[in-house]
Amino acid sequence: MKTIAIIPARGGSKRLPRKNVMDFFGKAMIGWTIEAAIQSQCFDRILVYTEDFDIANTSRIYGAEVPFMRDSYFDDFSPVALATHKALCEAEMFWQEKYDIVVQLMANCPLRDETDIKKSIENFKKQNLVSQISCFKFGFMNPWWAATMDDSGKPNYLFPEAKNQRSQDLPNLYCPSGAIWISSTQSLKKTQTFYIPEHKFFALDWTSSVDIDDQNDLDLARVCYELKTTSRSNKLTFKSNST
User: Fold this and answer.
1) Which of 110, 122, 118 is nearest to 208 (CA)?
2) What is the DSSP secondary structure assignment for residue 204, as one 8-state letter?
3) Domains in the chain: how many in total?
């Protein structure tokens, strides 16, 4: 099955300006996504779709293709799926190719790696899905205990029946992540969204799922990178000592 990766990346980020090309542990942030896509060996094409020439040039350096520029849907309001849909249609016209599967990889998710991509696509194919959205399980920030708060500090619990229950007695809750969204090209062309009624979740580790939109997200991503790097190093050391 012919598969295309589309990496939508606009230059007009407001909360964290120029985030897609800012340095993240020695690489442009978008470079982590491009290299993960290449190393996964899952794609016939890896396309970066951007209106920004700096992002385009940086993407080419890391090995992605940018044969045409994004001319719409790079404002602060358009759903990113609209840009991915348009990029897919333009890619098929430009290369005179038809794709069966489209995988949207957000450039602001640098901690998702090639293994995450492989496992996600394998699950999509194995389950014969039409649309799949990456997610992660909530941990200590338990949404079952979420509340709004008025000016006096009085909480209004969203789930009042859960506030006195232990976390281990409550169902797991999951949050979508922009890391890896997959659709059949037929479905995306028809609906222009991944959120079709038949969409399914695929859980990633929370350290692979961080979406970087502001400074707090960036700080968290840096901590997660150190955690993943330390864990990987410890595994290699253990394996070396065992042999």
Assistant:
1) 110
2) -
3) 2
